[in-house]
Amino acid sequence: MDKDVRSWVFLSGVGAVMLGMPYMLRLFGPTEVEVAKWGRLCVATGLFQFGVGVSLNLLNPSARRSLVGLGGVLIAVLQVLPIALWFVFSGSPIADGTPHAAFVAHWAYCLPHVGLGALGIAMAKQHLLRPQPESRAHQSRP
């Protein structure tokens, strides 16, 4: 089993947990409930990635490729909405209206989401779209 795969899985898990925590803990001020729910979903996805990383040696190669690839897809898809919303609300205060918040959104807050989304896309491409290597048992001998 390639150690790089485990590293990328753990890195995506840490990134998802770290990115979800500020939303879950409402560090951006009083926002809509959906924002905190997104944070919990992102943290749960990161914890799922930890579980995949721990169990990689126990899985057969096709299950390993599927779980790592689908985890990458899930992480990438989860980043689309925050990226779009940080751009849409750039320059606007973020609050649900009660009370008025002093925190103003800026498009640069989407950059960690872009990085984590790119990591998810790379993981998905590497494990779902790459041709599966042939096992040694199926290779012909000269």
Strand content: under 5%
Give the helices and strands as they follow along the chain: HHHH
Q: Characterize the biggest β-sheet.
A: none
Average pLDDT for all residues: 85
- Overall 3D form: elongated
Rg, nearest Å = 19 Å
Give the distance, in angstroms, between the N- and C-terminal Cα atoms: 27 Å
Structural domain count: 1
Assign the structural class, choosing from mainly alpha, mainly beta, alpha/beta, alpha+beta, or little secondary structure: mainly alpha
Q: Regions with pLDDT < 50 over 5+ consecutive residues?
A: none
State the helix count.
4
User: Percent helix among the residues?
Assistant: 55-70%
Total number of beta strands: 0
Structure commentary:
The structure is a single chain. With about 140 residues, this protein is mostly helical. The chain has one domain (about 5-130). Helices cover about 65% and strands about 0% of the residues. It is built from four helices and no strands. It has helices spanning about 5-25, 35-55, 60-90, 110-130. Helix 1 (about 5-25) runs antiparallel to helix 4 and helix 2 runs antiparallel to helix 3. The radius of gyration is 19 Å and the shape is elongated. The model has no long low-confidence stretch (mean pLDDT about 85).
How are the secondary structure elements laid out?
Layout: H1 3-24, H2 33-55, H3 61-88, H4 111-129
Brief overview:
With 142 residues, the chain is mainly alpha-helical. Helix content is 65%, strand content 0%. It contains four helices and no strands.
